[in-house]
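Reviewer comment 2.1 asked that we show a complete input and output for one of the modelled complexes. We chose the nicotinamide-adenine-dinucleotide case, as it is the one discussed in the main text.
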Amino acid sequence: MRSFDLTDRVVILTGAAGLIGRHYLPALADAGAIVVAADRDRAGAEAAIAELDARRALAVEVDLTRRESVREMVLDVARRFDRIDGLVNNAAIDPKFDAEHQGEHGLDFESLPLDQWQASLDVNLSGAFLCAQAVAPLMQRQQSGSVVNISSIYGLVGPDQRLYEREDGPRQVKPVTYTVTKAGLIGLTRYLATYWRGTGIRANTLTLGGVFNAHDDEFVRRYSARTLLGRMAQADEYNGALIFLLSEASAYMTGANLVVDGGWTAW
Ligand SMILES: NC(=O)c1ccc[n+]([C@@H]2O[C@H](COP(=O)([O-])OP(=O)(O)OC[C@H]3O[C@@H](n4cnc5c(N)ncnc54)[C@H](O)[C@@H]3O)[C@@H](O)[C@H]2O)c1
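Response of the prediction step:
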């Protein structure tokens, strides 16, 4: 088990206040890591580390769409802890598919406003680019580091829009921005891994399937039927894969994509 140990490794997790981010934090801390919970939702980031040892967990407010904000975050972490061993690009805009989040005009491809397209690219892709760019000099000096980009099954295959259709409600759509940005992260990973060859920095993608989040029964039934394991994931079921990618246990892995999706993409 020693190869999975993260003792004193400093790990920045973006989107830490979110549904899955909140579950990564205690798992990383249990593995020994010093965790930096980065989110534009400061209160959410603080709440996410509230149960952790205050000397080994830090909440940072960051707006990933602004280069200066990302740089300040990374400088702050470097000043406090003197090193950065892991970066997890987990933050994302992932519009929920209920009527409230679909907006007045829905998320149909034909009418999706350019500003919504841009906003998703800014967070999901450019945010990861800016973070990777900002941690690179320190990781290069250390000659070690692990960058993990969080993708989705919808970055590998297109969304099955039938899951989101309802006979009795307004039209619901999983937007094009999600697939495009999640596919883009897989390309970013491969680029970083090849660009950083020989530097000691590794980059990998962790691709996730859908997590149960109080979805309606109809959705859960349809979604579950598309997986081989017959169910949605629980929010803590990706912790092991993330610890693996951040630790020495994955020392011979770079430029790869670890798919943890209950079998969604196997057929
Ligand atoms: N939830 C799922 O079922 C699922 C499935 C597959 C992949 N994923 C991926 O896992 C990751 C986490 O998903 P989640 O469900 O926890 O998401 P979430 O929507 O619950 O959380 C996203 C977090 O990102 C933060 N964020 C958004 N814009 C930001 C910005 N400009 N600057 C800083 N922070 C910002 C939000 O404040 C939020 O806390 C995402 O990359 C998502 O694509 C999720």
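The chain has a mean pLDDT of 95. We note this here for comparison with the apo prediction described in Section 3.2.
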